[in-house]
C-alpha cells in the first residue's frame, strides 16, 4: 500500500483544485516563505481527521476555507482527498474478533468543511463517520497527528512530551491503535452492559413484591378454581333437572291447552246450533198471533159498542117520531138539530177514528171507516129530512116513512151485532187455542234453555281453566328466560362446560325432585357468594400474575445473558490488554535496537534507549459510591515512556541539558527508529532539517534514503542536501490571482536534460 495522490480544493491558499501525485519514494516540497508549503502538510492532517484547530492554525472551520483575493472570490467550502493503493487489501474495519478487509483496489478518503463549520467525511464517495475514518486509518498505522507527521518546530515534540503522551505516540507508531480502539469500544460496551444489568436487576427488585402479592392472590383464586369445578358439577345437575322440568311442563301444558281448546270448539258448535233453533221465533210468532187476535177482539168490541149506541139512537129517534104525533109544536121545535145529538155524533166519530188508527187489521180499519161514513150519511140525511120537514111544515107522511126506515136500520144493526158477537166468540176460542200451543212451546223451550245454560257454564269453566293454563304457560316462559340467564351466568362463572346438560334427565322413583333442586340452588348460591367475595372469576389477576412471572423469568434470563456478555467482554478486554502489553514490550525492544543504531550514527557513539515506567493510582470514585476510600481497593496503573541518552565524550544524560541541534538529532533518530520497526505508509517531514549543519544534513540525507526503502517520504525543506535526495520536486508559489500554484519537476529527467 502506498500514497497515490493528494487533492486540495479551496483549502486555505489553494483556491483552485490542486492535485499532487506521489509516485516516487521521496517527494520534496519547496518554495518561499508564505507560499503555502505548510498548507499541504496541514491538508494531510485535515483529511486524516485532525480535530485540533490549533494544529491546523485556525480558530474554526471557516478559517480553513479560501477567503478570496483581488482576482478570486471567496469560497463556501473546502475539501481535501487522499488516495491510497489497496491492491493488497490491507485496509480493514474491525469486526469484533475478526477484521473485515475492504475489497477495493484504491481507497479514497475525503473531508469537506463548510462555512458554517459542518464537516463531511467520505470513503470512496460514501458519507461515513469520523470514527470510521480513524478506524480505517488505524488498520494501516496512520493517525491524524502521529509520529509520521512532523511539522516545523515540532521535531523535538517527542522529547518534550510527557511519559504518557510518549506511550501514546509509541503505541500509535507500533500499530497498536487498533487495540486501543477495540479496548475502548469493549469498555464502552461493558459499561453500557453493566448499566443494563443494574437496570434489569432494579426492574426485578421492583416487580418482586408485586409478584409476591399476586402469588397470594392467585392462591386464593386457585381455591376459587376448585370451587368453580364444584359449581360446574352442581350447575350441570341442576340444569339437567330444570331443563327436563321445563320441557315436560311445556308438553303437558300444550296437551292440556289443546284438549280444552278442542272442547271449547265443540261447545261453540253447540251454541251455534242453539242459536240456529227457531223455538224463540215460534214463541214470538205465538205472541204476535195472540196480540193480533186480541186487537181484533178489541176492535169487534168497539164496533159492537158502536152498533149498540146506534141502536140506542135509532130507538130514541123512533120514540121522538112517536111523540111528534101527539104534539105539533113540539115537533116543530124538534125540527132543529139538538146540540146533544151533534155532541154524540162527534164522540162516535172520535172513537171510530182512534180505533181505526190503533188497528193493524185492514178489515177492521175498513169496517170502522164504513161505520163512520154511515153515521155521517145518517146525520146528513137526518138534517136534510128535518129541513124538508120544516119546509113541508110537518109532513106527516114522511114521518111514517121515517119510522119505518129507522126500524129497518135497527133490525139490520141488530143482525150485525149478532154476527159480531159470533166473531168475538170465535176470536176468543182462537186466542185460547194459540195460548195452549204457546204454553206447550214454552215448556219445550225451558228444557232447551236449561241445556244451553249448562253448555255456557261448561264453556266458562273451560275458559277459566284455559286462562289458568295461560298463566302457567307464562310462568314456564319466565322460567325458561331465567334458565337462559342462568346458563349465561354459569358460563361466565365456571366456563362453557357447565352449560352442558342432559335434556331428558330422570330420577329414581320416589325421589322428591323439588327438594333436590332447592338443595342444589342453595349450594350454587353459596358458592356464587364466595366467588363474589373473591372478586369474580379472577381471570385478569391470574393473567397479570402469569405475565409478571413470565416477565420476571425473561428478566432473569436477560440477567444471565448480560452477565455472560459482561464476562465475555471482560475476557476480551483482558486478552486485548494482554496482546497490547506483549506487542508493546516487543515493539519497545525493537525500537531500542534501531534507536541505538541511529543515535550512534548521528552522534558517532553514545547510547540511547527507551524505558517503560509505571505510575500507580487509585480508581476514580463516582458520586454514587461511598466517599470513603477502601484501603483494600485494587490499585490501577498507567504506563509511560522515558527517553534515556548518553552522549559520547559528555556526561549529559538529561534531555533538558541537550542543545537545540542535539535535541533535533535525538528526536530524528528516535522517529526514524520507530519508523523502522513498524514503517508507516508515508512520512511527512516539515522542515525538520532546519537546525542541521552541512555535515549533519548529509547524515540526515543518508537516513532519508535508507528510510525511503520502507515508507514514502514527503519532505518540506529549504535544505539543498535534502532536495538532492528527492526524485520529484514540487514548487509552491503565489500566483498573480492571489492563490497558491503548484509546479513540479522530476529531477532524473531534469538531470538528463541538463546533460
Observed structural traits:
alpha/beta, rod-shaped, Rossmann fold, single chain
Helix-strand blueprint:
Blueprint: E1 3-9, E2 18-21, E3 26-30, H1 37-47, E4 77-85, E5 92-95, E6 98-101, E7 106-114, E8 119-123, E9 126-128, H2 130-138, E10 149-150, H3 157-160, H4 163-173, H5 177-276, H6 279-324, H7 328-333, H8 339-358, H9 362-391, H10 396-494, H11 513-533, H12 539-603, E11 607-617, E12 636-646, H13 660-677, E13 682-686, H14 694-707, E14 712-716, H15 720-724, E15 728-734, E16 740-746, H16 747-754
Parallel strand pairs: 3-14, 3-15, 10-13, 13-14
Antiparallel strand pairs: 1-2, 1-4, 4-7, 5-6, 7-8, 8-9, 11-12, 15-16
Task: Describe the protein in words.
Among the domains are: 1-146 and 682-694 and 711-755, Rossmann fold (3-Layer(aba) Sandwich), CATH 3.40.50.300; 288-444, no CATH class. It is built from 16 helices and 16 strands. It has helices at 37-47, 130-138, 157-160, 163-173, 177-276, 279-324, 328-333, 339-358, 362-391, 396-494, 513-533, 539-603, 660-677, 694-707, 720-724, 747-754, and strands at 3-9, 18-21, 26-30, 77-85, 92-95, 98-101, 106-114, 119-123, 126-128, 149-150, 607-617, 636-646, 682-686, 712-716, 728-734, 740-746. Helix 6 packs antiparallel against helix 10 (396-494).
Amino acid at each position: 500500500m502506498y500514497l497515490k495522490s493528494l487533492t486540495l480544493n479551496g483549502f486555505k491558499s489553494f483556491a483552485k483544485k490542486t492535485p499532487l501525485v506521489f509516485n516516487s519514494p521521496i517527494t520534496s516540497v519547496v518554495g518561499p516563505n508564505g507560499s503555502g508549503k505548510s498548507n499541504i502538510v496541514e491538508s494531510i492532517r485535515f483529511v486524516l481527521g485532525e480535530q485540533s484547530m490549533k494544529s491546523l492554525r485556525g480558530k474554526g472551520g471557516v478559517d480553513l476555507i479560501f477567503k478570496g483575493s483581488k482576482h478570486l472570490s471567496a469560497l463556501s467550502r473546502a475539501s481535501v482527498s487522499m488516495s491510497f493503493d489497496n491492491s493488497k487489501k490491507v485496509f480493514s474495519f474491525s469486526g469484533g474478533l475478526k477484521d473485515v478487509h475492504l475489497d477495493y483496489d484504491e481507497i479514497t478518503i475525503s473531508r469537506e468543511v463548510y462555512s458554517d463549520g459542518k464537516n463531511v467525511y467520505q470513503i470512496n464517495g460514501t458519507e461515513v463517520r469520523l470514527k470510521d475514518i480513524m478506524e480505517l486509518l488505524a488498520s494501516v498505522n496512520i493517525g491524524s497527528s502521529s509520529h509520521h507527521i512532523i511539522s516545523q518546530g515540532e521535531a523535538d515534540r517527542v522529547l518534550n512530551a510527557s511519559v504518557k503522551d510518549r506511550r501514546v505516540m509509541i503505541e500509535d507508531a507500533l500499530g497498536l491503535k487498533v487495540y486501543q480502539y477495540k479496548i475502548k469500544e469493549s469498555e464502552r460496551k461493558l459499561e453500557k452492559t453493566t448499566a443494563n444489568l443494574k437496570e434489569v436487576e432494579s426492574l426485578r427488585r421492583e416487580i418482586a413484591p408485586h409478584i409476591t402479592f399476586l402469588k397470594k392472590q392467585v392462591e386464593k383464586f386457585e381455591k376459587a378454581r376448585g370451587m368453580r369445578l364444584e359449581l360446574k358439577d352442581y350447575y350441570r345437575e341442576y340444569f339437567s333437572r330444570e331443563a327436563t322440568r321445563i320441557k315436560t311442563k311445556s308438553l303437558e301444558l300444550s296437551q292440556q291447552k289443546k284438549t280444552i281448546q278442542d272442547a271449547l270448539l265443540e261447545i261453540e258448535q253447540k251454541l251455534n246450533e242453539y242459536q240456529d233453533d227457531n223455538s224463540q221465533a215460534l214463541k214470538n210468532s205465538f205472541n204476535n198471533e195472540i196480540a193480533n187476535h186480541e186487537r181484533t177482539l178489541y176492535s169487534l168490541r168497539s164496533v159492537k159498542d158502536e152498533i149498540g149506541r146506534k141502536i140506542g139512537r135509532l130507538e130514541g129517534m123512533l120514540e121522538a117520531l112517536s111523540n111528534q104525533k101527539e104534539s105539533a109544536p113540539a115537533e116543530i121545535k124538534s125540527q132543529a138539530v139538538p146540540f146533544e145529538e151533534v155532541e154524540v155524533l162527534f164522540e162516535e166519530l172520535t172513537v171510530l177514528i182512534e180505533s181505526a188508527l190503533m188497528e193493524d187489521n185492514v178489515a177492521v180499519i175498513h169496517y170502522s171507516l164504513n161505520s163512520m161514513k154511515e153515521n155521517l150519511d145518517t146525520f146528513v140525511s137526518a138534517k136534510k129530512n128535518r129541513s124538508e120537514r120544516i119546509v113541508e111544515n110537518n109532513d106527516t107522511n114522511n114521518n111514517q116513512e121515517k119510522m119505518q126506515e129507522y126500524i129497518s136500520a135497527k133490525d139490520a144493526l141488530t143482525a150485525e151485532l149478532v154476527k159480531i158477537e159470533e166473531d168475538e166468540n170465535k176470536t176468543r176460542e182462537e186466542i185460547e187455542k194459540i195460548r195452549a200451543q204457546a204454553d206447550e212451546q214454552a215448556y219445550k223451550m225451558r228444557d232447551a234453555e236449561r241445556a244451553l245454560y249448562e253448555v255456557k257454564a261448561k264453556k266458562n269453566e273451560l275458559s277459566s281453566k284455559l286462562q289458568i293454563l295461560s298463566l302457567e304457560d307464562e310462568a314456564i316462559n319466565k322460567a325458561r328466560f331465567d334458565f337462559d340467564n342462568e346458563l349465561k351466568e354459569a358460563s361466565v362463572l365456571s366456563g362453557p362446560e357447565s352449560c352442558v346438560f342432559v335434556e331428558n334427565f330422570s330420577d329414581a322413583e320416589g325421589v322428591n325432585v323439588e327438594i333436590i333442586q332447592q338443595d342444589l340452588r342453595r349450594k350454587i348460591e353459596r358458592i356464587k357468594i364466595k366467588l363474589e367475595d373473591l372478586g369474580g372469576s379472577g381471570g385478569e389477576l391470574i393473567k397479570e400474575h402469569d405475565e409478571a412471572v413470565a416477565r420476571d423469568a425473561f428478566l432473569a434470563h436477560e440477567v444471565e445473558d448480560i452477565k455472560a456478555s459482561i464476562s465475555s467482554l471482560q475476557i476480551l478486554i483482558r486478552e486485548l490488554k494482554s496482546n497490547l502489553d506483549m506487542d508493546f514490550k516487543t515493539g519497545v525492544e525493537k525500537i531500542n535496537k534501531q534507536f541505538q543504531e541511529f543515535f550512534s550514527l548521528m552522534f558517532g557513539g553514545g547510547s540511547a534507549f527507551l524505558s517503560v515506567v509505571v505510575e500507580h493510582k487509585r480508581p476514580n470514585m463516582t458520586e454514587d459510591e461511598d466517599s470513603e476510600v477502601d484501603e483494600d481497593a485494587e490499585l490501577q496503573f498507567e504506563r509511560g515512556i522515558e527517553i534515556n541518552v548518553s552522549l559520547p565524550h559528555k556526561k549529559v544524560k538529561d534531555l533538558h541539558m541537550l542543545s537545540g541541534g542535539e535535541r533535533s538529532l535525538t528526536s530524528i533518530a528516535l522517529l526514524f527508529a520507530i519508523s523502522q520497526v513498524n514503517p508507516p505508509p508515508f512520512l511527512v517531514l516539515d522542515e525538520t532539517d532546519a537546525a542541521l549543519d552541512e555535515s549533519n544534513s548529509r547524515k540526515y540525507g543518508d537516513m532519508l534514503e535508507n528510510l525511503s526503502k520502507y515508507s514514502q517520504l514527503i519532505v518540506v525543506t529549504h535544505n539543498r542536501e535534502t532536495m538532492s535526495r528527492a526524485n520529484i520536486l514540487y514548487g509552491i508559489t503565489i500566483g498573480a490571482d492571489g492563490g497558491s500554484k503548484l509546479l513540479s519537476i522530476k529531477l532524473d529527467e531534469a538531470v538528463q536534460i541538463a546533460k
